[in-house]
Specification:
The protein is an alpha+beta fold. It is built from eight helices and 14 strands.
Length: 246
């Protein structure tokens, strides 16, 4: 049985860097930590889809006041894109809706195409997403077979590069502004190539000045002692300094 402390400490404030596994939602992780720390005042800085892994920054106590500023910071991801198959959600969790023949490609070819996405771009949220239209999440409308017009939003892509490619899967790294739908980029890249594509895996490595190397796996966190748990929290003063240095 894991050690489950209950702090009930209203003075507990700071950030907790978690390496999220595939499966739980970002909100699920928040709920787990609420039980772990016995406090309700917890939020996160940028949602990760359930299948996505990597850095999830949680804010505890007074640190939640910094949520807007920390969430607004840039993100870096690594992942894989599978060409030749289109899904309704633009990722591997969706239903396959079509397949296409993959042209003869290499890493250099792919990186020529990714240049088209760099800089300021307009991006529509996928139909299978939590974005709401008249108070209803788009994914609920998508389940009913409905497709509606979505308002595009401006995002910025600082870099988008493939590191290697072995047909039909390419491994990439992307540095982007908050709110970027990486699976939409995978879908759009597939359209440009004429064969379709979808996001196969996604792993967040950085969020602002926070790095995955400083995080702790969720399954390891729940086994820590009270003292060890306290030592994992980045204090409020350190968060404030990191914002001032950006």
């Amino acid at each position: 049985m894991p050690h489950i402390p209950h702090y009930q400490d209203n003075n507990l404030s700071g950030a907790l860097l978690i390496n999220k596994p595939a499966g739980p939602t970002s909100h699920d992780v928040v709920d787990i930590i609420r039980g772990q720390y016995g406090t309700k005042k917890i939020g996160h800085c940028g949602t990760l889809d359930p299948a996505a892994t990597g850095l999830l920054v949680l804010l505890i106590g007074k640190a939640t006041k910094l949520s807007n500023k920390l969430t607004a910071e840039h993100k870096t991801y690594e992942g894989t894109i599978e060409l030749g198959t289109i899904t309704d959600s633009y990722d591997a969790q969706g239903t396959v809706i079509s397949k296409g023949d993959i042209p003869n490609l290499n890493c250099e070819d792919l990186n020529t195409h990714t240049q088209n996405f760099k800089g300021d771009i307009q991006q529509k949220p996928p139909m299978v997403s939590a974005v709401k239209k008249n108070g209803v999440p788009l994914y609920k409308l998508a389940r009913k077979g409905k497709t509606i017009e979505r308002e595009p939003k401006s995002v910025h892509i600082f870099s988008f590069d493939f590191l290697d490619y072995n047909t039909p899967v390419g491994r990439f790294c992307i540095h982007c502004s908050k709110g970027t739908y990486v699976r939409s980029l995978a879908h759009e890249l597939g359209q440009q190539l004429g064969c379709g594509g979808h996001l196969r895996t996604l792993h967040r490595t950085k969020s602002g000045s926070f790095d995955i190397k400083d995080s702790i796996k969720l399954e390891e966190l729940v086994l820590l002692s009270d003292l060890e748990l306290h030592s994992r929290i980045l204090p409020l003063k350190e968060l404030t300094r990191s914002l001032q240095s950006v």
